[in-house]
Amino acid sequence: MRLRLVIFLVLGLLAYATRPSSASDLALIGAKIYPSPTEPPIENGSVVIHDRVIVAVGLRSSVKIPRGATVIDCKGLVVTSGFWNSHVHILTPALLHVHEARARDLNEQLDTMFNRWGFTTVFDISSILDNTLELRRRIESGELRGPHVLTVGEPIWTIEPVYVRDFLGANHISILPTETPDQAIALVRDHAAKGANGIKLFAGSYQGDGKVAVLPLAIAKAAVAEAHRHSMPVFAHPQNAEGVDVSIESGVDVLAHTVPQSPPWTPEFVARLKRANMALIPTLTLFDFEARKGGLSEQNREGWLAQMVAELRAYTQAGGEILFGTDIGYTDHYDTALEYTLMSRAGMDFRHILASLTTNPARRFGYAGRDGRIAKGMDADLAVLGADPARDVTAFSNVRYTIRGGKVIFSKR
Q1: How far apart, in Å, are the Cα atoms of 100 and each of 93, 97, 105, 112?
Q2: What pTM does this model have?
Q3: Model confidence over 142-166: pLDDT tens digits?
Q4: 8 A C-beta contact, residue 303 and residue 296
Q5: Would 21 disulfide with which of 25, 47, 107, 268, CB 3.0-4.6 Å?
Q6: CA–CA separation, 210 and 205 (whole Å)
Q7: Helix, strand and coil in the chain, % to nearest 5
Q8: Do 60 and 21 fall into the same domain?
Q9: How many structural domains does the chain have?
């Protein structure tokens, strides 16, 4: 009797050990893998995913593929960690009324804006909080294909910038001014309680004709201090040098743009930014978009872009932290190739650009223990590229597959 029991248990253990993989198992085989921006690539490598997590990564010859796993042949393709876009807006017409919108329409917009370009996490840095939280809920429930959405909701400003007034009016959106430190604190507490992940300040709000409404330092300091009490990062739209000063003095974490109304960045100015531990999102394509929209001459457009590129170059050369971001949702220029080209023009090689897309935002926003690298135990958020960005940085925009939480959310047929 005892012998039969032992045999039964042994057979049970053998059956468990040799069982087919679950339907959630996914394997990418034969790829060139960049585990992180600082590690050497794995040639002819494989990645195995189980239940949203990477369980193995290495040479194809050394990685065992579970029986029954879904296999994607990645010969000739490149695999990196999934991309972060740290400056987007959930404000396109197709995303403005998420509660009532059909899943089919939302998925189409999410593909166009995010999934198509390899983004597995996005940081929305101004939108309607309740609407964006509903979008996140529908994505996280599995109803929609989309990236992980972090959001700041409504921003803090004393007056809205001139270029959004018509949009807000046409869509019946009201974002009230913040006029006192107490109002700033109340807004931060409200957003934190509802599930926001950060706070956005318009340190400088453009009013037209070169005029900028600068956020009072007392309001900025109150907002930043309260946000940091809730472990929320603070972004700032600077607009001009005074806006940058307010951002630095108040303790802002991330500049949302290079600064169009700024004198050339001197080593002393860059050192101030660096001492403040400020990350920078260049959004260089935005300025090309605005120049074309405004009808600037080719010479003036190129001059404006050269100024923004020079600011990024100065901060990059000083070792400042760069986060990738495009301001899509405000712009409708979704293609990311130009941004990578301009970042390269500023002196960023493909590893620096990859860091801006992966390890830098993961570390800055508290996800380094689970995202930003390809390693065992990390979240299975991956971008599969059709070409090697080491040869041409625009390959970062040549996305064949986007995988979030072990599921393919975009596939280029």
Answers
A1: 13, 6, 11, 20
A2: 0.93
A3: 999 999 999 999 999 999 999 999 8
A4: no
A5: 25
A6: 11
A7: 40, 20, 40
A8: yes
A9: 2
